Amino acid sequence: MRAHKIAVIGGDGIGPEVTAEAIKVIRAAGVDIDTTDFDLGGARYMRDGEILADGTLNELRAFDCILLGAVGTPEVPPGVIERGLLLKMRFELDLYINQRPFVGTAPGHNESHEFVVIRENTEGPYVGEGGALRVGTPNEVATQGSVNTRFGVERCSRHAFELANSRPRKHLTLVHKTNVLTFAGGLWQRTFDEVASDYPDVNTAYNHVDAACIYFVQDPHRYDVIVTDNLFGDILTDLGGAVSGGIGLASSANLNPARTGPSMFEPVHGSAPDIVGTGEANPIAAILSAALMLDFLGEGAAADGIRSACAEPVTGTTTEVGDAVAARVRN
Ligand code: IPM
Ligand code: MN
């Protein structure tokens, strides 16, 4: 088998540190990867103004997958790198599924939970619909719409049903706010119900997003697979991380399940500029994101080995944790 071609965007802050550990662990697991580094992120933008040029985006299309650390620096105003780099990749590469698995024991509980959030990744309030007028004046007006298409909601729901159908519990919960966001909520609920008829073995449920926040803390065991809108999924998955051992363990896959281009894998956490170079950054989220990448590349056995190696407690600096996990997967 040929080596998997991986584009590596270490990015800013702790991104490059945790990504280096993830690559170390992939190699220790015996998977043949051919990596190419892309110098992108806030630091690059400050240096020469490039965020993600179309030429660079086209180069990325030639890879099997993209492994990303974290992007964003305090010197760059909020939104510039997020929209110009991360969201641009999600939209342009049609990474319409953001899959985030959670395993852990929530505070105050004795038994561990295990569930997956499927977050729609190319629509909703993230598309940037709207605008502002008379900015900075007392007459300022700002609107920010949410775009939901039947096509987008259906393909996301279908992915979630497929996943739920493949798991032992076969349970899928739609999370939305259909009691207030009646236009988008109606589309989501009707589409979800129609797709459900193709999956008679999957049991379904519905929770409003505010109630889901309570259940994440008080009763996370009720969940198997969750499917939700882009912004609800963003917020809910930070909470998912917080009740599953902390955001330092939370991994994610930005998938183009149609495989018309590379998928992208990244930890849920940010660039944490306050701890750069201290060795405090936990590389486990990046390592588990690399395991999700290996699943997608058909290297399931190596991915399972990495997940087992991460399940045992490990402490130390960023590189010590990476070395310890690498040593476990080698054995
Ligand atoms: C995430 C992040 C991003 C998002 C930011 C950095 C744009 O919070 O991946 O969850 O909002 O999707
Ligand atoms: Mn987020």
Overall, the morphology is globular
Total beta strand runs: 12
Whole-number mean pLDDT = 97
**Tally of individual helices:** 11
- SSE order, one letter for each helix or strand: EHEHHEHEEEEHEHEHEHEEHHH
Strand order of the largest sheet: 2-1-3-12-11-4-5-10-8-9
- Ions, cofactors and other bound molecules: 3-isopropylmalic acid, manganese (II) ion
- Report the helical percentage: 40-55%
Whole-Å distance between the termini? Answer: 23 Å
- Structural class, from helix and strand content? alpha/beta
How large a portion of the residues is in β-strands, by DSSP E? 15-25%
Question: Which blocks of ≥5 consecutive residues have pLDDT under 50?
Answer: none
Query: Radius of gyration in whole Å, from Cα?
Result: 20 Å
Give the SSE layout.
Blueprint: E1 4-11, H1 15-28, E2 33-37, H2 42-48, H3 54-60, E3 65-70, H4 80-92, E4 97-104, E5 113-120, E6 130-133, E7 141-144, H5 150-166, E8 171-176, H6 182-196, E9 203-208, H7 209-218, E10 225-228, H8 230-242, E11 251-255, E12 263-267, H9 284-296, H10 300-311, H11 318-330
Parallel strand pairs: 1-2, 1-3, 3-12, 5-10, 8-9, 8-10
Antiparallel strand pairs: 4-5, 4-11, 6-7, 11-12
